[in-house]
Design a protein that fits this description.
The complex is a heterodimer of chains A (about 425) and B (about 60). With about 425 residues, chain A is an alpha+beta fold. Chain A is built from ten helices and 16 strands. Chain A is elongated, with a radius of gyration of 29 Å. With about 60 residues, chain B is of the alpha+beta class. The chains are: A alpha+beta (about 425), B alpha+beta (about 60). β16 of chain A pairs antiparallel with β1 (about 30-35) of chain B, so a sheet runs across the interface.
């Protein structure tokens, strides 16, 4: 159900820049708290309201048909048919552009408790993405000039958890072992509750500052899309435990700050986390299209943090790899042949083999050992180099994920 | 002689790995956005104590 302007009757949309509902037709700006809560009818279900009237009203907004995996609702503004997927709560009518809410998905026990309204406008989100694209030397020229193909503000569902986490961890600082006890409390730890979105991507969107949440009000959904939570409770609790552990472990590694290499050897975690709330948090989905491949960047709608990976200029990257390799190979070659290191090793080896006495086969075993260590070291260095590349490639694949693209794109209404 | 050639080959392979590592780090900084870790605002009352040796004394002894 769209909120209408009391002045001209046009649909209102929530504008993050004003933190208010704005009429795009007459320019009226309205504080959502001053509007009568149109959800009251649904919130008061079971407290003496007429069940016949309730069923009739629900029927008008309920499913009027079904096609494949979509449901069809009727827009309350113009009566047009609006297609919504299984978990969408709000979407735009393709005929009149007003926001349509699926009320039965936010009524009763499935209604969110809180919401963080969008603080970053669409223009600011686009500017943040463009700033990142312009700053990298390896970003291909095409991406520096590209216009986004699809921009959508979507409220993503999160469960909130409270609890206590404690751990005893054993570290090695240099060669010295250290055991540390730690504990902390979590209050409103947000855990993403949408099955479709990749956990790794949504983790990178953190942090969200939960002290800026407000009580849920459908006014904040005006002009944006949103989904309900569809993650099972058990999976959500497991995800909460993993997130709490990752946060705690990172904090333990920072304390105290030291330039010496610190390595965690073992840990014995204990935690108790309980779900205390359900909130909708804001995310901008911005998709760039390159030769039919979508690249979806996410922008935290509260802080403006940009998440995503851009493909690199392969020619430039290849040239730099070749240059560095050639330089290092030249240094090694000079050390071995010109400075005589190779001659020294060969002479030493010949001397030992010539003067082998009883037990001298140990020399051969020592050579095999040295060779094995050197070979392992070289392969380990190659593996580390490739794994760093793979890490960036994995994140690039997440940015190119068709699932994320469809989550954003396959919605009603204008995409820009 | 064989050992010398083998060590030379290992050094070349390690040089290739170092080249990939350096460029991988540069790509991570330039093309991968949002990987910076930050403190979680939902974490409260963080406490961390030494169970055995004091960590400060270990760091002091390593600095000497």
């Amino acid at each position: 159900m769209a909120r209408n302007c009391p002045g001209c009757g046009a649909p209102l949309i929530y504008d993050p820049g004003f933190d208010s509902l704005v009429c795009e037709t007459c320019g009226n700006i309205i504080d959502p708290k001053t509007l009568a809560d149109a959800d009251d009818f649904y919130l008061n279900m079971g407290s003496g309201e007429d069940p016949v009237a309730l069923e009739d009203l629900l029927e008008e907004e309920e499913i009027t048909g079904e096609t494949y995996d979509c449901h069809i609702h009727q827009c309350t503004q113009c009566g047009g048919e609006v297609i919504v997927s299984g978990t969408e709560v709000s979407t735009r009518c393709v005929y009149c552009g007003s926001t349509t809410l699926v009320f039965n998905r936010i009524a009763k026990e499935v209604r969110p408790d809180y919401i963080i309204p969008f603080k970053i406008t669409k223009e600011e989100a686009l500017a943040n993405v463009k700033k990142k694209l312009l700053s990298g030397p390896f970003v291909p020229r095409f991406f520096k000039k590209i216009d986004p193909e699809c921009v959508r503000g979507i409220y993503v569902p999160y469960y909130l958890y409270d609890g206590v986490y404690s751990d005893t961890q054993r570290f090695m600082i240099g060669k010295e072992p250290i055991i540390r006890d730690g504990s902390c409390e979590f209050h409103d730890l947000p855990v993403e509750a949408c099955k479709v979105l990749a956990d790794k991507t949504s983790e990178l969107l953190d942090p969200y500052f939960m002290n800026e949440t407000v009580d849920f009000d459908t006014s904040y959904l005006m002009g944006f899309y949103s989904n309900i939570a569809d993650l099972e409770m058990r999976a959500a609790k497991a995800a909460a435990g993993q997130k709490a552990r990752a946060v705690f472990d990172w904090e333990m590694m920072q304390q105290p700050p030291t330039s010496f290499r610190k390595k965690r050897v073992s840990s014995v975690p204990k935690y108790e986390l309980e779900r205390t709330g359900y909130a909708l948090l804001p995310v901008w989905f911005i998709t760039l299209d390159k030769d039919g491949t979508p690249y979806t960047f996410l922008v935290n709608g509260q802080t403006g943090k940009v998440v995503g990976t851009v493909p690199w200029n392969r020619v430039l990257a290849g040239a730099i790899i070749t240059t560095i390799f050639a330089a290092l190979a030249a240094v090694v070659t000079i050390l071995f042949f010109k400075e005589g290191l190779y001659r020294q090793i060969a002479d030493k080896e010949l001397h030992l083999l010539t003067h082998m006495k009883k037990g001298g086969e140990n020399v051969i075993y020592a050579e095999i050992g040295i060779g094995f260590l050197a070979g392992s070291g070289a392969l380990a260095m190659l593996g580390i180099g490739f794994s760093k590349f793979k890490h960036v490639l994995d994140n690039l694949n997440r940015t190119k994920s068709v699932v994320t693209f469809i989550f954003s794109k396959k919605r009603q209404g204008d995409s820009k | 002689m064989i050992l010398g050639i083998f060590l030379y080959g290992c050094a070349i392979v390690a040089a290739l790995g170092i080249a990939f590592l350096i460029v991988g780090l540069m790509l991570e900084k330039s093309n991968f956005f949002g990987h910076e870790k930050e403190s979680c605002p939902s974490m409260k009352k963080f406490r961390c104590d030494n169970a055995e040796k004091s960590i400060d004394s270990v760091i002091k002894s390593l600095s000497k």
